[in-house]
Amino acid sequence: MTPENAHSPGLAGRLQSLDFFRGVTMFLLVAEFTALFEHLTDPALEGTWLYQAALQFHHHPWNGLRFWDLIQPFFMFIVGVAIPFSIANRRKRGQTAGQIRNHVLRRSLLLLLLGWGLYCQGPGHIVFRFQNVLAQLSVTYLLAYLVMDKPARVQIIFSFVLIAITEIIYRTFPIEGFNHPFTPNENFGTWLDLQYGGADLNGYWVSFNAIPTTAHTIWGVLAGQLLMSERTGAQKLKILLISGAIGVIAGYALNPVTPIIKRICTSSFILVSGGWALLALALSYWLIDIKKWQKGVLFFAVVGMNSLFIYLFAHVGGADLIGKIVSPFTTSLLGWTGEVATLVLTSLAVLAAMWYLCYWLYKKRIFFRI
Fold first, then answer.
1. Residue 322 has what DSSP assignment?
2. What is the per-residue burial (b if ≥16 Cβ within 10 Å, else e) of 235-266?
3. d(CA 263, CA 206)
4. What percent of the chain has pLDDT over 70?
5. Is the dihedral of CA 242, 281, 278, 101 positive or negative?
6. Mean pLDDT over the full length of the chain
7. Which of 16, 217, 238, 351 could form a disulfide with 140 if both were Cys (CB 3.0 to 4.6 A apart)?
């Protein structure tokens, strides 16, 4: 991961709706590291509207969909949207197909190594976990790149083939004890992870999710190619809205047959979350690139433009470090508000400090890339 400075762009000349969408997603991910959502669901708040609203920022236990279940698909999708723009910029700079391919392979490997490194500590031993966002992104990013120059229908067919393969494997897996496709820890995904010692038996997340969630990145690539096309803004918006609506409706309609389960990325979940990703991009595109709404764009964009840095910084203890610095002040100054309120306000202070770090990097024109 290396910083780029004077030659790195600010907001000018960028697809601002994408920067905004990515920034909002990353801002929420950073907020999670401050324990904000955990404090908002403190038992002391149970029964209040705030508690009920904050539940949407926690993953659904199994069959169902909450807002927080969309964050990872959003991230995968956003990376896909950015790929055509990134490749086009590299081609404009004169890079050959071989140089671009080598960059993609190197980036994919680095994402995998970063994903491993962040989650390699097991109970007294080293484990290689593939369930995290970065490790899974290394797979989806590479597969999406390999088919991005194919016609749109080929990319769409390939994405649905991956979803269908996942559905078939889960439903037909023959090993006793792991042949219940939609039961926690009794499905193919858990069996696969047990083979290399990386099973998440408490959270039920599985490594094989990288295969079906590749559809999110491929659909992101298609959305990026659409936004780069010569179609009018209205035409682009219409395609995004129709595609998103189809995904959402199809996903919810499939739920009685194939349950919506984010933890094992069932086909219904991929469809409904992919649909919401398309609709979220459509809303951002309409609001910012068509209606030219600018309020709040920079606030979130500065986070999105250093998304990898702030994610890694928060993950390796940056949020905890800032929390230790600000906690004595918030406790002494705001302790009169009550224990839970003080914890929430401390989390907000940490979140503000991390946002300012992104803003400072933006003002210094420092953008970290791999």
1. H
2. ebbebbbebbeebbeebeebbeebbbbbbbbb
3. 7
4. 94
5. positive
6. 92
7. 217
CA 170, CA 37: separation in Å to the nearest integer?
33
Closest by CA to 136, choosing from 77, 179, 190, is: 77
Q: Max alpha carbon distance in the chain (Å)? A: 62
Work out the average pLDDT over 129-152: 94
Neighbours of 60 (CB within 10 A): 18
Name the β-bridge partners of 4. Answer: 367
What angle (nearest 5°) sits at the alpha carbon of residue 221, between those of residues 282 and 148? 155
Q: What is the dihedral angle through the alpha carbons of 299, 304, 305, 311, rounded to the nearest 10 degrees?
A: 120
Question: Long-range contacts made by residues 146-152, C-beta under 8 angstroms, separation at least 24?
Answer: 147/218, 148/83, 148/84, 148/87, 148/221, 148/225, 152/222, 152/225
Supply the DSSP string of 56-121, one letter for each residue: GGS--SSBS--GGGGHHHHHHHHHHHHHHHHHHHHHHTT--HHHHHHHHHHHHHHHHHHHHHHT-B
Looking at residue 124, the DSSP 8-state letter turns out to be: S
| SS percent in the chain: helix, strand, coil, step 5 | 70, 5, 25
367-369 and 2-4 strand pairing: antiparallel
| 74: nearest Cα among 300, 234, 341, 326 | 300
Give pLDDT, residue 7. 40
Q: Are 342 and 334 in contact (CB under 8 A)?
A: yes
Task: Please state, in angstroms and rounded to a whole number, the distance separating the CA atoms of residues 93 and 192.
Answer: 43
pLDDT of residue 281: 97
* Mean pLDDT on 168-196: 96
User: Which residues neighbour 90 within 8 Å (Cβ) at sequence distance 6 or greater?
Assistant: 99, 100, 103
CB 272 within 8 A of CB 74: no
CA distance linking residue 347 with residue 62, whole number of Å? 28
Q: Is the pLDDT of residue 1 over 60?
A: no
Dihedral sign from CA coordinates of 330, 355, 25, 208? negative
Q: What SS3 string covers 280-305? A: HHHHHHHHHHHCCCCCCHHHHHHHHC
